[in-house]
Write a structure and sequence with these properties.
It is globular, with a radius of gyration of 17 Å. The chain has two domains: 72 residues, Guanylate Kinase phosphate binding domain; 84 residues, P-loop containing nucleotide triphosphate hydrolases (Rossmann fold, 3-Layer(aba) Sandwich). Helix 4 packs antiparallel against helix 5. The two termini are 27 Å apart. Helices cover 42% and strands 18% of the residues. With 173 residues, the protein is of the alpha/beta class.
């Protein structure tokens, strides 16, 4: 989808493993991030796990102005902020098949402490409780199928038809 732009979030956390600045995240200082808050630079932002994360409003506005759609990877509170600023947004909750599977994925990643994984699981459980605030829910149990559903939702959103290609099948899970 050449006219779909992926928004790379800004964060104050340190890079993990092989993460690269400008590819995985834009890594910035807490002072720079707080300055961005006061300058209303962020379309959405939150403090999560002791670090700031945010989406550049300038990036979104520029992409939309160029006729492109924007894909964001954000949490529930970020989604709620985005809807205030961009009320026509199509929201999709990507959900793990279970918290046990999510725990295993986090452990396999090998970048988080046991305490961090426990905190992430607690946060995930709370976010899963809020999944029905989204227009669509995609369970990420089989990657190929999840990608197909996500692609169908994006395509349907572009045409204004949300019941095509199975795009809305997971709505009430």
């Amino acid at each position: 989808m050449p006219d779909l732009r992926y928004s790379i979030s800004h964060t104050t956390r340190s890079p993990r493993g092989e993460e690269k600045n400008g590819i995985d995240y834009h890594f910035i200082t807490q002072a720079a991030f707080r300055k961005g808050i006061h300058a209303e630079r962020w379309a959405e932002w939150a403090e999560v796990h002791g670090n700031y994360y945010g989406t550049s409003a300038e990036f979104i506005d520029r992409a939309l102005g160029e006729g492109c759609d924007v894909l964001l990877d954000i949490d529930v509170q970020g989604m709620e902020q985005i809807l205030k600023r961009y009320p026509d947004s199509v929201t999709i909750f990507i959900m793990p098949p279970s918290l046990a599977v999510l725990r295993q994925r986090l452990q396999d990643r090998g970048t988080d402490s046991a305490a961090s994984i426990s905190e992430r699981l607690d946060n995930a459980a709370e976010e899963i409780k809020r999944r029905k605030r989204y227009r669509h829910i995609v369970v990420n149990d089989r990657l190929e199928e999840a990608v197909e559903k996500l692609t169908a939702i994006v395509a349907a959103g572009r045409t204004g038809r949300f019941n095509t290609a199975g795009a809305n099948l997971d709505r009430n899970k």
